[in-house]
C-alpha cells in the first residue's frame, strides 16, 4: 500500500518537473511578442516607389525607410549630453526614401512622401524638424505631396530642380513613359497606414 501511495504522488510530481523544465528551456512568449508584418509598405508607398524607380532607378539606387541617424551624424566635440539629445531626436526617425549613387552608394538626397491631411500637427512638426536637420547638414530633401499623381519624368525633374548643381554628373535623358501616374491608392491611402499612426510609425524607425 505504501508503494501505491508513493507512486500516486510521484507521477504528478514528475509531470510538474517535466512541465517546468520545458517552460524554462523555451523563451517566454511575453518576452518576444513579435509577429511578421503582412507588408513593409503601404499601397501609397509602393506606388510612389515604382514611380521613383522609373524616373531615377536606372542610374541611381533608391533605398526605403532609411534611419535619419544612418545618414546624418552628430559630430564629436562639445557637450556630451547635448550630443546625446541631438542623436536621440534623429535615432527613432526615418526618411521615406534615400537616393544614392549607383557606384559607391553615397547618399545624394532624401525623398519624403508627405500627407499632412492624415498625419496632422504631429506629421507637420516631424517634417519641420527633419527639414531643418537636413538644411543644417546641407543634405537635400525633396518632398512630394501624397495627394497628387506624378509621372516619372516629373519626379526626375523635381529632384533635379532641388539638387541643382549638387550632382557631379546629370541624370541621362533616358526614355521614360510619357505618363505613368500612381494608382488611386496614392491619393486615397494614408502614408502611415502601416506605421501605427502618423508619428508613432515614423518614430519606430
Key attributes of the depicted protein:
single chain; 205 residues; alpha+beta; 2 domains; four-stranded mixed beta sheet; 46% helix; globular
Major sheet characteristics: 4 strands, mixed
Mean pLDDT: 76
The run of helices and strands is: HHEHEEHEHHH
| % residues in beta strands | 5-15%
Label the structural class: alpha+beta
For the CA atoms, what is the radius of gyration?
25 Å
Which consecutive residue ranges, at least 5 long each, have pLDDT under 50? 168-185, 187-205
With strands numbered from the N-terminus, the spatial order across the biggest sheet is 1-2-3-4
Compute the number of helices: 7
Shape: globular
Helix content: 40-55%
Provide the number of structural domains: 2
What is the number of E strands? Answer: 4
| Cα-to-Cα separation, first versus last residue | 67 Å
Amino acid at each position: 500500500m505504501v508503494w501505491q501511495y508513493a507512486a500516486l504522488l510521484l507521477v504528478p510530481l514528475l509531470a510538474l518537473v517535466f512541465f517546468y523544465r520545458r517552460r524554462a528551456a523555451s523563451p517566454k512568449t511575453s518576452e518576444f511578442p513579435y509577429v511578421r508584418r503582412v507588408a513593409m509598405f503601404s499601397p501609397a508607398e509602393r506606388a510612389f516607389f515604382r514611380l521613383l524607380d522609373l524616373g531615377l532607378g536606372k542610374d541611381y539606387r533608391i533605398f526605403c525607410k532609411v534611419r535619419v541617424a544612418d545618414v546624418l551624424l552628430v559630430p564629436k566635440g562639445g557637450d556630451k549630453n547635448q550630443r546625446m539629445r541631438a542623436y536621440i531626436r534623429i535615432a527613432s526617425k526615418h526618411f521615406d526614401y534615400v537616393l544614392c549613387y549607383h557606384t559607391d552608394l553615397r547618399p545624394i538626397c532624401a525623398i519624403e512622401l508627405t500627407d499632412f491631411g492624415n498625419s496632422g500637427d504631429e506629421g507637420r512638426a516631424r517634417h519641420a524638424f527633419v527639414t531643418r536637420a537636413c538644411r543644417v547638414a546641407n543634405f537635400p530633401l525633396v518632398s512630394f505631396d501624397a495627394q497628387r499623381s506624378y509621372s516619372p519624368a516629373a519626379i526626375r525633374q523635381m529632384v533635379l530642380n532641388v539638387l541643382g548643381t549638387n550632382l557631379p554628373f546629370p541624370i541621362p535623358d533616358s526614355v521614360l513613359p510619357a505618363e505613368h501616374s500612381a494608382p488611386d491608392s496614392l491619393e486615397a491611402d494614408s502614408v502611415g497606414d502601416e506605421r501605427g499612426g502618423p508619428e508613432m510609425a515614423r518614430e519606430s524607425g
